[in-house]
């Protein structure tokens, strides 16, 4: 194929038939990947951590996102700050990726020294006319919602993060997630494009056949179900499932717990998210194999174990909060075919491992599910790069959120002139 015959990013988007998957070029091409990072991970709000990543003043968490790098810092006033990881002298990185604790931020090159609020405190040999107030660290837009740390690297951040905050803050309030700690965290590099990671997360069409641990507590019917061909007994069982869900929801709402689905997902939306309190199967307490709590020290001042799963999706993350623990995952794209998935398991800050919880029970469901998903993403990415690949139709019953994500993706690119 000649260079002139190579389709543009926009032409690849217009190739997508209505209700069908994306063409392979949108997953495998380097130019598409670079556009995606610039738009979806720079111009949009993204989840990059939790408050317990930087629990104490002086704690720093450094993350690389494409060519950018940011410092998440807990300052001396215990506020969460975020700065570009670029020295204002000659651009050296102040900290490598990972976590650390500092008193001051000292550039390893020429020892320019910054306070935790980003102000330049020391710069040797710059003369009396040098004004250090002009060389503060460059701030990054930051929003803490519950325990979630969202940032936006754009000069002007989308304003509708305020709606996410408005919806989610009261939903997270009773859990008091800022008074939590990380019991365990994991990193998986999935061999697939970031959009395939999110598409996989947006449907449970695959769950029954691939996620035995997850479906012990998670109900795939919550995200679509086709009744064609079901027996009378199966239809009755499905009706009973819907009645049980409705009864549980009324019970929660009578006690003041927010339940309804909120979907901020349309093509005119910038900061995309979805939330709902979902019923947990079995004993209904937590996402564990026996569906009972993994941690007996519940969040906040909660006494009720069966509060379901308060979930939150964004375009780079998914969260599940139960009465006893939370599982928060977010993604960072590394290459067209490489995506970093970070997952953190949170418990009450005073919970003691071996007394209040056993780590294997706490992590058994999502540790297995993440590995299974990584495998699914890998074989799907590989298949989309095969010359024989032709995008197939989505299930209108179980993949509507995948189709919606595809439409939102196209609309956001168009909004940025792609």
UniProtKB/TrEMBL annotation:
UniProt entry tagged with the keyword Iron-sulfur: yes
Keywords tagged on the record: 2Fe-2S, Iron, Iron-sulfur, Metal-binding, Oxidoreductase
Highest taxon in the source lineage: Bacteria
Cofactor(s) listed in the protein's UniProt record: Fe cation
Pfam families the UniProt entry points to: Rieske, Ring_hydroxyl_A
Coiled coil: none
Entry annotated with the keyword Glycosyltransferase: no
Domain Rieske: 47-151
GO molecular function: 2 iron, 2 sulfur cluster binding; iron ion binding; oxidoreductase activity
PANTHER family: CHOLINE MONOOXYGENASE, CHLOROPLASTIC
Protein name listed in UniProt: (Fe-S)-binding protein
Annotated source species: Pseudomonas chlororaphis
């Amino acid at each position: 194929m000649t260079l002139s015959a190579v389709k543009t990013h926009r032409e690849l988007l217009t190739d997508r038939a209505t209700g069908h998957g994306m063409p392979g070029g949108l997953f495998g091409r380097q130019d598409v990947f670079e556009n995606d990072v610039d738009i979806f991970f720079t111009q949009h709000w993204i989840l990059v951590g939790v408050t317990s990543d930087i629990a104490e003043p002086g704690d720093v968490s450094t993350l690389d996102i494409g060519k950018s790098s940011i410092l998440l810092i807990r300052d001396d006033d215990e506020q969460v700050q975020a700065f570009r990881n670029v020295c204002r002298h000659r651009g050296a990185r102040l900290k490598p990726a990972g976590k650390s604790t500092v008193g001051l931020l000292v550039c390893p090159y020429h020892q320019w020294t910054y306070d935790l609020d980003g102000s330049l405190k020391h710069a040797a040999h710059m003369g009396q006319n040098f004004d250090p107030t002009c060389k503060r660290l460059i701030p990054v837009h930051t929003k803490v919602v519950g325990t979630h740390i969202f940032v936006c690297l754009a000069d002007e951040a989308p304003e509708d993060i305020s709606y996410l905050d408005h919806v989610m803050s009261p939903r997270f309030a009773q859990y008091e997630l800022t008074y939590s700690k990380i019991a365990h965290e994991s990193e998986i590099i999935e061999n697939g494009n970031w959009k395939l990671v999110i598409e996989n997360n947006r449907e449970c069409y695959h769950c029954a056949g691939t996620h035995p641990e997850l479906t012990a507590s998670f109900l795939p019917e919550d995200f679509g179900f086709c009744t064609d061909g079901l027996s009378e007994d199966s239809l009755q069982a499905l009706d009973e499932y819907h009645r049980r869900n409705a009864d549980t929801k009324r019970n929660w709402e009578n006690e003041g717990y927010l339940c309804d689905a909120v979907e901020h997902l349309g093509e005119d939306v910038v900061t995309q998210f979805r939330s709902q309190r979902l019923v947990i199967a079995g004993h209904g307490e937590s996402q564990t194999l026996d569906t009972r709590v993994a941690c007996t020290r519940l969040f906040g001042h909660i006494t009720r174990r069966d509060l379901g799963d308060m979930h939150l999706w964004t375009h780079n993350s998914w969260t599940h909060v139960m009465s006893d623990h939370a599982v928060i995952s977010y993604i960072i794209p590394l290459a067209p075919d490489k995506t970093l998935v970070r997952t953190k398991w949170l418990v009450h800050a005073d919970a003691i491992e071996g007394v209040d919880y056993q780590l294997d029970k706490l992590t058994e469901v999502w540790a297995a599910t993440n590995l299974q998903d990584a495998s699914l993403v890998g074989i799907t990415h590989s298949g989309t790069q095969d010359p024989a690949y032709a995008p197939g139709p989505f299930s209108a019953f179980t993949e509507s959120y995948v189709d919606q994500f595809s439409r939102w993706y196209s609309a956001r690119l168009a909004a940025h002139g792609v």
